[in-house]
Design brief:
It contains 8 helices and 14 strands. The chain is α/β, with parallel strands linked by helices and about 325 residues long. It has 2 domains: about 170 residues, Rossmann fold (3-Layer(aba) Sandwich), CATH 3.40.50.2020; about 140 residues, Rossmann fold, CATH 3.40.50. It has a 7-stranded mixed beta sheet with strand order 10-9-8-11-12-13-14. The protein has a 5-stranded parallel beta sheet with strand order 1-4-5-6-7, sandwiched between helices. Strand 8, helix 5 and strand 9 form a beta-alpha-beta unit.
């Protein structure tokens, strides 16, 4: 094996994405045994020499999330003890990304705890995609890179000649929505949302902007239960919108999300493959674009010491 090539290993969370990344890079996936014993313990053994090599471990926060996280930590430890030269954790979807601040009394900042544990396990660097909150990068004392799927999602709708209004479902998505609106040369609208409980239910208050008689595109970082997405879609239809589209990086799609989307006025929801998507295939309304070329290019640039930021320089 060429010492000058990066070595990319996959956890069990999303081997299909790792295979696509390696296919883009023209490499094979690193050989390792990763499985769970009957008692629930996780076993990892590398099947190839990684001494002094540049190692990348691909593992998103796929369900079951705590198992996928523990598996990443054990893989990092195995690679570190095998004397790798550098270890990068490639995390397409970050664990506990919504627990990024103390917004209530006596709650943890779990996203920070996750960062501490990844560092303690021995990672030298992390590569992530579309974090729920930008400050998560600051939770790490090691080097971080955050990629954005905005170009991918924007290109998807630009190729389909989308003409309409880009909508942020809440204030947190406003910047992402503004950037997409700039890409598509589209006007912007904002749904103001007040979350009223911890169980994913939210109260929609009001729409800032005009959507009457126009197609609309709702942009956000993730779709989980789809509760907010469906409520925003209903609100937009009440305000006179025509076709309703959605664009989300992370398709968590937990609980009754598929059924909610199917029953909603949403015409098409576009997600990426940062998470495995077996359930999304059950809905004709859901389309998937792959982030594998973007992650593969970023891995190659990190390995070669080239700029990752250049991938997004055209946004200024």
């Amino acid at each position: 094996m060429d010492l000058h090539e990066p070595t990319v290993f996959s956890g069990t969370a999303h081997p299909e994405l790792t295979a696509r990344i390696c296919e883009y890079m023209g490499h094979s996936v690193g050989s390792a045994d990763v499985f769970e014993f009957s008692n629930g313990n996780i076993f990892v053994q590398l099947r190839e020499n990684v001494r002094e090599r540049d190692v990348f471990i691909v593992q998103p926060a796929a369900h079951p999330v705590n198992q996928s996280f523990m598996e990443l930590l054990i893989m990092i430890d195995a690679v570190r003890r095998a004397s790798a030269g550098r270890i990068t954790a490639v995390i397409p979807y970050y664990w506990y990304g919504r627990s990024d601040k103390k917004d209530q009394p006596r709650v943890p900042i779990t996203a920070r705890l996750v960062a501490n544990l990844i560092e303690t396990a021995g990672a030298d660097r992390v590569l992530m995609m579309d974090l729920h909150a930008g400050q998560i990068q600051g939770f790490f004392n090691i080097r971080t890179d955050e990629l954005s799927s905005l170009d991918l999602l924007g290109s998807y709708f630009a190729e389909r000649e989308f003409q309409g209004v880009v909508v942020a479902p809440d204030l947190g998505a406003a910047k992402r929505a503004r950037n997409l609106a700039d890409m598509l040369k589209a006007p912007l609208a904002l749904s103001e949302k007040r979350r009223i409980s911890n169980d994913d239910s939210a109260e929609l208050l009001n729409l800032i902007g005009e959507v009457d008689g126009q197609d609309v595109l709702i942009i956000d970082d993730e779709v989980d239960t789809a509760g907010t997405l469906v409520k925003v879609a209903d609100l937009l239809k009440r305000k006179g919108a025509l076709d309703v589209y959605g664009a989300m990086t992370h398709g968590v799609l937990s609980g009754q999300a598929i059924e909610a989307i199917e029953a909603s006025p949403i015409k098409e929801l576009v997600i990426t493959d940062t998470l495995p998507q077996p359930r999304a295939k059950q809905s004709r309304k859901i389309s998937t674009v792959s982030v594998a070329p973007l992650l593969g290019e970023a891995i190659s640039r990190i390995h070669d010491g080239r700029s990752v930021g250049e991938l997004f320089d055209h946004h200024g």
